[in-house]
Amino acid sequence: MYEKVFRKSLISALTKEQAHLSLKSALENLKPENRNIKPSPDLHSVWQLLEHIRIAQEDIVQYIINPDWKSPEWPEGYWTKGNYKISDEEWNKSISKFDEDLQKLVDIVKDENIDLTSVIPHTKNHTYLREILIVIDHNSHHIGQIIAIRKMIGDWAS
User: Residue 142 is part of which domain span?
Assistant: First the structure.
């Protein structure tokens, strides 16, 4: 009984809006021309943050399911290069890939054959739960940054 509640709580933290907004809500109604605006040189654009979240989440999901996965170089491989105009196709592909990988993670949580507190077999000491919690924490942190960036550039309706 507790395990079902536990799994449901993890899925909720990954996919629902409780203590924070979802990525979908954070990106909703963003004007395309504002996707790559940086409010200052030392801050990221919404596009850079979206891609960073996507890349990091993909890395963790693949780390869990693929023993042969090679993570990108840190930190360069986790951030987009350049500051170019983002096409609708690139934007939508990034969101779609994020959603795809999030669903893979949800499927892992739902799999009752996986003891989420056990060490992932091909790792030395990382549990499924550790990786899931990292995704929850990392995504919510950067989603908050997206909202802050949108407010700074005047593209957030409160």
Answer: 29-152
